[in-house]
UniProtKB/TrEMBL annotation:
<dbReference type="Pfam" id="PF00535">
    <property type="entry name" value="Glycos_transf_2"/>
</dbReference>
<keyword id="KW-1003">Cell membrane</keyword>
<keyword id="KW-0448">Lipopolysaccharide biosynthesis</keyword>
<dbReference type="InterPro" id="IPR001173">
    <property type="entry name" value="Glyco_trans_2-like"/>
</dbReference>
<keyword id="KW-1133">Transmembrane helix</keyword>
<dbReference type="InterPro" id="IPR050256">
    <property type="entry name" value="Glycosyltransferase_2"/>
</dbReference>
<keyword id="KW-0808">Transferase</keyword>
<keyword id="KW-0472">Membrane</keyword>
<protein>
    <submittedName>
        <fullName>Glycosyltransferase family 2 protein</fullName>
    </submittedName>
</protein>
<keyword id="KW-0328">Glycosyltransferase</keyword>
<keyword id="KW-0812">Transmembrane</keyword>
<dbReference type="InterPro" id="IPR029044">
    <property type="entry name" value="Nucleotide-diphossugar_trans"/>
</dbReference>
<feature type="domain" description="Glycosyltransferase 2-like">
    <location>
        <begin position="9"/>
        <end position="170"/>
    </location>
</feature>
Length: 243
């Protein structure tokens, strides 16, 4: 049977998440089958465990699943961009591969989009009740406060992995490593509006986190300065076609 062209592409970047792949794919299909035509694009960022083998086996069972592999480790932002470029849907939903984002929230984001103005191109998940360690929650709160003050993006939680955005608008943004943490500010810089939507957040059930607070903070300082510069140097021009 011919697969219907997807309206939505769910992009999931993964690195060493072999035990989280099958449960998350099952939850995505349960949330979206019968809602709209969709595809799932997993991007394996050169995992060192057998994540890719698990994905290969699962691909034979799940017709919506596509698998892309980085031949060298390139980071989460690059993996997301790889998935978005390969996606066939006009809209993209992203999820972290660790299972902490709840795929059942994707229909909630789609419902928000259905009633939103056309100039809103990003619906960002907002983890109102974090299910992380105390140190991780504190570090995130500190980082969000600094980012909000510098970028004035009116977004309480840019680090949440579940987002819904227009593919074309995303691909028009400047690309750099770690850009996925600054999507609201970058979308606003491009002249689009963004909204934050409360979503569920779950404890990690398998595997280990790939980040530490100190490393993330050190990289974040440089990133913030760069994004602030991009915003300052950005320029929007109104255009119209002459009939």
């Amino acid at each position: 049977m011919t697969q219907q062209a997807p309206q939505l592409s769910v992009v999931v970047p993964v690195f060493n998440e072999r035990d989280n792949v099958a449960p998350l794919v099952g939850e995505i299909t349960a949330a979206l089958r019968g809602v709209l035509p969709f595809e799932i694009v997993y991007v394996d960022d050169h995992s060192r465990d057998d994540t890719l083998d698990v994905l290969r086996a699962l691909k034979a069972q799940v017709p919506e699943l596509r698998v892309i592999h980085h031949v060298s480790q390139s980071g989460q932002s690059t993996a997301i961009r790889t998935g978005v470029k390969a996606a066939r849907g006009a809209w993209i939903a992203t999820l972290d591969g660790d299972g902490q984002n709840d795929p059942a929230d994707i229909p909630k984001l789609l419902a928000q989009r259905a009633s939103a103005a056309p100039d809103i191109k990003l619906f960002a998940g907002w983890r109102v009740h974090r299910r992380d360690s105390g140190s991780k929650r504190w570090a995130s709160k500190w980082a969000n406060a600094i980012r909000s003050r510098m970028l004035r993006d009116a977004t309480p939680d840019t680090g949440c992995g579940i987002k819904l955005f227009e593919r074309a608008a995303f691909l028009d943004l400047p690309y750099f490593d770690h850009m996925h943490r600054y999507l609201p500010a970058l979308m606003q810089r491009a002249g689009w509006k963004t909204v934050s939507v409360p979503v569920n957040h779950r404890p990690r059930s398998a595997g280990v986190s790939k980040y530490n607070n100190l490393g993330r903070a050190l990289v974040g300082i440089a990133d913030l300065r760069g994004v602030a510069w991009l915003i300052k140097r950005g320029k929007l021009t109104q255009v119209r076609e002459i009939e």
